[in-house]
Amino acid sequence: MDRMVDTLFGLRCQNCGEVFMPPKYVCTKCSSANLERFDLSGEGEIHTFTTIRVAPVEFEGQVPYDIAVVKLKEGPRITARLMAEESRKVEIGAPVSFAKKEENGVCWFKLA
Fold it and tell me: Which residues contact 80 (CB under 8 A, 6 or more apart)?
């Protein structure tokens, strides 16, 4: 069973201010290794999404489910699972908030 993490963190370049999620070893904008870890707000919006209806074998019992690219308030975009909410329609631009992160790196967001 995967352990859940309740915070989302990234790195900020101390030279140019670029923010990364997932973290990098060097800044891809200025090549500096002077990076600082910080907690992200967990707030963002759906940049794009898709609904999976035919899933790989290990996820067949979860269909249909939504995968989204979330643009975080701090700037980076990450791929995430959306929590199922049958009464809410998923739309591009919809606000979302971080819900949990599994030990294997899967981030879950919910509609705000």
Answer: 67, 68, 69, 70, 106, 107, 108, 109
Q: Do residues 31 and 14 make contact, with C-beta atoms less than 8 angstroms apart?
A: no
**Cα 8 from Cα 19, distance rounded (Å):** 13
Give CA separation, 1 vs 6, 50, 58, 102, in Å: 16, 26, 14, 9
CATH code linked to domain 4-111? 2.40.50.840
| pTM score of the predicted model | 0.85
Rounded distance, CA 34 to CA 55, Å? Answer: 41
Whole-number CA gyration radius for the chain: 15
Neighbours of 102 (CB within 10 A): 14
pLDDT-derived band of residue 1, with 50, 70 and 90 as boundaries?
very low
Q: Is the pLDDT of residue 75 over 60?
A: yes
Domain boundaries, the chain: 4-111
